Amino acid sequence: MATVPLVRVCERCLNEPPALRRPKTGEKICKSCFYDVFETEVHETIVSTNLFHRGEKVAIGASGGKDSTVLAHVLKTLNERYDYGVEFVLLSVDEGITGYRDDSLETVERNKDQYEMNLEIVSYRDLYNWTMDEIVATIGKKNNCTYCGVFRRQALDRGCVKLGISHLVTGHNADDMAETILMNLLRGDTSRLDRCTEIVTAGTDSPVKRSKPLKYCYEKEIVLYAHFKQLDYFSTECTYSPEAFRGTARAIIKNLEAIRPSAIIDVIHSGEQFVLQKKTKNRMPKARTCTQCGYLSSNETCKACVLLGGLNASRAKIVLDTEPAPDQPSAAAISRSLERLSF
Ligand SMILES: Nc1ncnc2c1ncn2[C@@H]1O[C@H](COP(=O)(O)OP(=O)(O)OP(=O)(O)O)[C@@H](O)[C@H]1O
């Protein structure tokens, strides 16, 4: 009976000893072939979609986590290697989450020097006069991701506008995309299902185009890349509970990946083939401006203003209930009131 020979050399260069089994393909390869194939795949994604143009200024949504840190590192490497002629800037949002974002922003401050990129930080405190810590103290942990997601999206837009930038890249990876496809499928959200696989999205409610250069990169490979390259990133999870539905979709994708590694890429390729029927396309929202903040919106009031309206009403109620109606309640008074509040 024929025996399968043990692979003792990298299956790509047939020279070096293998250092890892590639999660995406199962190939046993050496470190330098892994770097090469990982970076080349991102480059091919960029070139095949004409993602950047020479002279363009692009913001990298930098959270200090593994995905956006690998994104910044790889984009810097490719920009130099292939002379894209792009100027990259790091853009961070400080959501005001003690013990999480304050620490991860310190990482981004170091990345700024390591990658020789300018850094702009915008905060929920400055933009909305709320921090996520205060929001969670007011509404509880349930649904807090909805608030954070809406505010972050607009904060990144506003940061880009401040920098005079109209293109934002984020570290969303293949696992994130497969989860989103599954979530939209399970919710029957056909219009989002149609758009969520696109590498570039330019919504009616945003002046900034967004793109995902890592859309075909497996999360496991991003972690391996960051680990082998010893990149400086922040690995703690957000202290507030994750969105339950996404968490479940994530578990399904991880389970599928365990028995069929190509499942992630297969889900993305399937999602890319979905074509919206005309009647569904007609339901797409039209662009307008928010009557409250004047920002682009697909509704009369933008989502951020709707959420802020509820939060500010809660704050006003707490102050009226607990303080002798000062003109300007002190921050300390608001914090004390928020601490007493439970829903
Ligand atoms: N506070 C933030 N400031 C700037 N960009 C952010 C911030 N939070 C998220 N992003 C951007 O959105 C992407 C997806 O964020 P998300 O929190 O869903 O994923 P993640 O897997 O934790 O990403 P990362 O590993 O980069 O933190 C990030 O890779 C980053 O580009």
TrEMBL record:
User: Looking at its record, which EC class is this enzyme?
Assistant: transferase
Please state every residue range assigned to the domain named tRNA(Ile)-lysidine/2-thiocytidine synthase N-terminal.
57-246
Q: Where is the Cytoplasmic tRNA 2-thiolation protein 1 C-terminal domain?
A: 289-318
Major subcellular site? cytoplasm
The Gene Ontology terms for molecular function here are: ATP binding; nucleotidyltransferase activity; tRNA binding
On whether Cytoplasm is a keyword of this UniProt record, the answer is yes
Output the superkingdom of the source species: Eukaryota
CDD domains linked to this entry: CTU1-like
Residues that hold ATP according to the record: G61, A62, S63, D67, V93, G171, D176
One Pfam entry for this protein is: zn-ribbon_14
**Biological function:** Plays a central role in 2-thiolation of mcm(5)S(2)U at tRNA wobble positions of tRNA(Lys), tRNA(Glu) and tRNA(Gln). Directly binds tRNAs and probably acts by catalyzing adenylation of tRNAs, an intermediate required for 2-thiolation. It is unclear whether it acts as a sulfurtransferase that transfers sulfur from thiocarboxylated URM1 onto the uridine of tRNAs at wobble position. Prior mcm(5) tRNA modification by the elongator complex is required for 2-thiolation. May also be involved in protein urmylation.
Q: Which family does it belong to?
A: Belongs to the TtcA family. CTU1/NCS6/ATPBD3 subfamily.
Supply the name of the protein.
Answer: Cytoplasmic tRNA 2-thiolation protein 1
